[in-house]
C-alpha cells in the first residue's frame, strides 16, 4: 500500500479531524491507489478520497463516472466508490464478463450524483459525519466546490489541511520505496544512454530524445528533462534546443520521469574532451560536498546541519563563494516532498524518508554543474538508489 | 502570439475588470508565453501574469527566481518580470555573456520579494491599480495566497474569473493553430507507427511504447496514452498492460501528447485479422456519425445541433442504442477547451475554434471503438489536421 496510514491518522488526531478529504491528484492516489487520470493531466477535474478517522467508517472514492474504469483497477484498495455525472456503457449480453467489467457494472448500477460535491456529501452522510470536523486538502478542490461543500453541510467544519497529507507522505512505505528506487534507476540509465551517445555536433534535443526514449523503454514516463550544453548548462531549467555540442562543453542533465506514478529527479554531468582545470576543480568540489552531506544523514540528524556541512564542504574543496538556498528535498508522488534540505529547517531525518540530495552550481558565462542522488534513509544511514557514480564523465 | 488579446479584453470589459490575473499554468503560458515549468509539473508552485485593461499599464510576469531562465526565453513576449525568493547564480567575469544570460543578470539585479503575492502586489501598485477590480483565475492560486492578496489590498475587489480565460482561449490565434496542427499530426503518426508494428502477441505496453517513442522522435511530449486490446478496449481510459494481442482483437488508441505546450487528442482503431460482421457494422456507424457531425460544422451552427445529428447518424447507421453525453470538445493548452459538443450547449461554432470531434462507443464484453479527429473551424467549414483516415485498420 502507498499510504502510511498510521502517520495520516496521527496527523488527523493532532488536529482533531473526523476525516480527511484528499483533492489534489497526488493525495487522491496516495490515500486510495486511484490514479484519477483527468485530474493528473488537466487542472479542474475533481476526484476526492474521504478518509475517516479510525472506527468512523470506511474510506470512499468520489469520481466522475467517465473514469470509473481506473477506480476499479487492482491497485486501488479503497472499494467504496461514489460517482457523479453520466457516461454510457453498453453490455454484450452474450458473453461472460471479466472481473473488472463486472465491478464496473456493479458501480454503474448504483445511482450517480450530478456533481462531485453532491457525491462527496452523500459519502459523508452515509458515515454520519455531517456534523464533523474535516481536514480538506485545499490544493485540488476549486473554490466554487469548496463553497458548495460548506453550504451543503452547514454544521460541519472545514479546515485547510494539505499539510497533513504532506506530513504523512514524507515517510515512505515499502511499496513506495520500491517504486521510487526503480524510478531513480530508470532516470540514471536514461542519462547514461544519452552520455553514451554524446559526441561532437549532437544537439541538446537529440540528447533529450535519447533520455526520454530510454525512460519509456524502461517502463517510465517522461516528466522533467533539463538538458543544457556549453554555457547554456548554467540555465537552471534549461530546455533542450538545437545547440550542438562542441569540444570542451559541459553537458548537464537534471532530469527524471515517473514510474508507476512515482517521480525521479537526479543530475549528472559530462564534458566533451578534456576538462579544464577549473571545471575539474569545481566538479570535484560539488561531489565532495554531496558526499559529505550524504555521509551525515541518518535518523535523528538535523536537516539544517546537513545543509551547512554540504555547503561548507563545497566551499572548502574549491568553490569558496558557493551558496545555495537548499541542497535537496524529499521525493514521492510529488517531485518535492518533505523535508526541504535547507538552512533553516529544524526537522530531523527519519527512517523511511526518500530524499534527493544535490549540490548544483550555476555560473553564467561558464556553465552549470549538478550532482543529485536519490536514496532512502535507513536505520543507521542511507541506502542509495543510484547505479552510476557522480564522477564527471568524459565523452 | 498565443494570446487572443481582443477577446481577453472583451471579457475583461464585460465584467468591468481593471486587470486579469492568470494563475493556472495554461493561463500563465497563454497570456505571456512563459512556460512556468514547476507549476506545470507540480501542484502548488505559484506563477502569475497580470494583464491590465488597455491603457492601464503593461502586463507583468510574477515568478520564483529559480525559474527566471524560462521567463527570459525568446518565446515570452511579456517583458516586465517580478521575482520572488532567492536563488544563487554566479558570473564568469572573464567572458562576454549571451543575450539570455545578460537578461537574467538584469532581472537578478532588481529586488526580489519574499513570496509570490508580495511580488504581485508590487506589480499592481506599480500600475496604480491598488483600488481596482480584478478577475482572478481561481484554479492555480492556493486559498492561502488568495487570502493574503485580499488582505494586502483591502480596497481592491477580487472576483473568480477563470471563465474569462476559457472564453478567450476558445478562438485560436494563427500561432496556436499551427502548433495544434503539428501536435495532432504527431499523434496521428504515432498511432500509425504502433499499428504498423501490431501483430499477434504484441502487448498493449509494447504498442504504447512505440506510440510514445514516435511522439518523442517527432518533437512532442507524451501525455495521454489509452491503449486497449480485445474486450479491454471497452475500458474508457484503459492503461496499457501486458495483455497480448490475439486474432480478432480490437485495438483502440485514444491518445495524444503535447507539441510546444499544445495538446493532441485523437482516436483510431484496428483489428487483428478479419473483423466480425458486428465490428464492421459498428465501426462504420461511428465513422458515418463522425462524418455527419463534421460536415455540419461551420461558423454560426449551433453546437447542440451537431451533437444531435452525429448521435442520430450513428444510431441510424447500425448502433440503434447509441448514446453519449458529448461528441467532442475544443483543444488548446488544455485538453478540453470550449466548446463542449454536448446536447445542451446553445453556443455556436466560430471561425478559429480548434476542436476534437469524436464518436466513441464502449460495450463491456465486446470492446470499445472510437474515432476522433482534430480540425480548425474555417470561414465556411473545417480544415482537418488529420493525416490518416478513420477507417478500421486491419493488421
Any idea what the CATH superfamily of the largest domain in chain A is called?
A: Creatinase/methionine aminopeptidase superfamily
Q: Give the integer mean of the pLDDT values of chain A.
A: 97
Q: Biggest sheet of chain A: strands side by side, in what order?
A: 4-3-2-1-6-7
Helix content of chain A: 25-40%
**Number of self-contained structural domains of chain A:** 2
CATH class of the largest domain in chain A: Alpha Beta
CATH third-level topology of the largest domain in chain A: Creatine Amidinohydrolase
Biggest interface, and residues per chain?
Answer: A-B, 73 and 73 residues
Indicate the structural class of chain A. Answer: alpha+beta
Rg of chain A, Cα atoms, Å:
24 Å
Strand portion of chain A, in percent? Answer: 15-25%
- Quantity of strands of chain A, as a count: 19
Helix count, DSSP H or I runs of 4 or more residues of chain A: 12
Net shape of chain A: globular
How would you sum up this structure, described in words?
Chain A has 395 residues and is of the alpha+beta class. Chain A folds into 2 domains: 5-169, Creatinase/prolidase N-terminal domain (Creatine Amidinohydrolase, Chain A, domain 1); 174-394, Creatinase/methionine aminopeptidase superfamily (Creatine Amidinohydrolase). The first copy, chain A, is 35% helix and 23% strand. Chain A contains 12 helices and 19 strands. In chain A, the strands form 4 sheets. In chain A, strands 4-3-2-1-6-7 form a 6-stranded mixed sheet, sandwiched between helices. In chain A, strands 8, 9, 10, 11 and 19 form a 5-stranded mixed sheet that branches. In chain A, α6 packs parallel to α7 and α9 runs antiparallel to α10 (204-217). Chain A is globular, with a radius of gyration of 24 Å. Chain A starts with a helix and ends with a strand. Chains A and B meet through β5, α5, α7, α10 and β8 of A and β5, α5, α7, α10 and β8 of B. β5 of chain A pairs parallel with β15 (361-364) of chain B.
Amino acid at each position: 500500500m502507498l499510504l502510511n496510514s498510521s502517520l495520516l491518522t496521527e496527523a488527523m488526531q493532532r488536529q482533531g479531524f473526523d476525516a480527511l478529504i484528499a483533492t489534489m491528484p497526488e493525495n487522491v492516489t496516495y490515500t486510495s491507489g486511484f490514479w484519477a487520470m483527468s485530474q493528473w493531466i488537466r487542472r479542474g477535474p475533481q476526484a476526492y478520497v474521504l478518509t475517516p478517522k479510525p472506527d468512523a467508517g470506511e474510506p470512499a472514492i468520489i469520481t466522475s463516472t467517465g473514469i470509473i474504469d481506473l477506480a476499479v483497477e487492482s491497485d486501488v484498495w479503497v472499494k467504496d466508490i461514489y460517482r457523479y455525472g453520466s457516461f454510457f456503457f453498453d453490455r454484450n449480453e452474450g458473453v461472460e464478463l471479466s472481473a473488472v467489467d463486472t465491478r464496473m457494472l456493479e458501480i454503474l448500477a448504483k445511482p450517480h450524483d450530478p456533481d462531485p460535491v453532491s457525491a462527496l456529501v452523500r459519502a459523508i452522510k452515509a458515515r454520519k459525519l455531517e456534523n464533523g470536523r474535516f481536514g480538506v486538502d485545499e490544493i485540488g478542490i476549486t473554490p466554487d466546490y469548496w463553497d458548495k461543500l460548506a453550504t451543503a453541510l452547514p454544521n460541519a467544519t472545514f479546515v485547510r489541511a494539505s499539510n497533513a497529507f504532506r506530513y504523512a507522505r514524507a515517510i515512505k512505505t515499502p511499496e513506495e520505496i520500491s517504486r521510487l528506487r526503480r524510478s531513480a534507476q530508470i532516470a540514471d540509465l536514461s542519462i547514461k544512454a544519452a552520455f553514451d551517445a554524446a559526441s561532437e555536433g549532437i544537439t541538446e534535443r537529440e540528447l533529450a530524445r535519447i533520455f526520454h526514449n530510454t525512460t519509456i523503454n524502461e517502463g517510465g514516463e517522461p516528466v522533467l528533462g533539463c538538458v543544457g550544453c556549453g554555457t547554456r548548462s548554467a540555465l537552471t531549467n534549461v530546455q533542450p534546443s538545437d545547440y550542438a555540442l562542441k569540444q570542451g562543453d559541459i553537458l548537464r542533465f537534471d532530469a527524471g520521469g515517473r514510474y508507476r506514478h512515482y517521480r525521479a529527479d537526479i543530475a549528472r554531468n559530462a564534458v566533451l574532451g578534456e576538462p579544464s582545470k577549473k571545471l575539474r576543480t569545481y566538479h570535484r568540489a560539488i561531489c565532495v560536498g554531496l558526499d559529505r552531506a550524504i555521509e551525515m544523514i541518518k535518523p535523528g540528524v538535523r536537516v539544517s546541519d546537513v545543509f551547512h556541512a554540504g555547503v561548507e564542504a563545497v566551499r572548502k574543496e574549491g568553490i569558496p563563494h558557493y551558496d545555495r538556498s537548499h541542497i535537496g528535498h524529499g521525493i514521492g508522488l510529488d517531485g518535492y516532498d518533505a523535508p526541504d534540505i535547507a538552512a533553516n529547517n529544524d526537522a530531523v531525518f527519519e527512517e523511511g524518508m526518500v530524499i534527493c540530495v544535490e549540490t548544483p552550481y550555476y555560473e553564467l558565462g561558464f556553465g552549470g554543474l549538478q550532482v543529485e542522488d536519490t536514496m532512502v534513509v535507513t536505520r543507521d544511514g542511507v541506502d542509495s538508489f543510484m547505479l552510476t557514480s557522480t564522477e564527471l564523465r568524459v565523452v
